[in-house]
């Protein structure tokens, strides 16, 4: 199942903190799509996913200052 987490407008590190909280609620195989506009999260979220062995199934820049990343719970 795909869940969405909108963190646009949140200052770092809150997009990452919210993503960590939400991932704890998900079952293995579920995906979390995180929309964010904090530039620090462009490194923090993928690094966190790698540390947790969560595959990144999508990662793209939507415009000058917003991104989306989809992380799968292992």
UniProtKB/TrEMBL annotation:
<feature type="domain" description="UPF0033">
    <location>
        <begin position="7"/>
        <end position="73"/>
    </location>
</feature>
<dbReference type="Pfam" id="PF01206">
    <property type="entry name" value="TusA"/>
</dbReference>
<dbReference type="InterPro" id="IPR036868">
    <property type="entry name" value="TusA-like_sf"/>
</dbReference>
<protein>
    <submittedName>
        <fullName>Oxidoreductase</fullName>
    </submittedName>
</protein>
<dbReference type="InterPro" id="IPR001455">
    <property type="entry name" value="TusA-like"/>
</dbReference>
<comment type="similarity">
    <text>Belongs to the sulfur carrier protein TusA family.</text>
</comment>
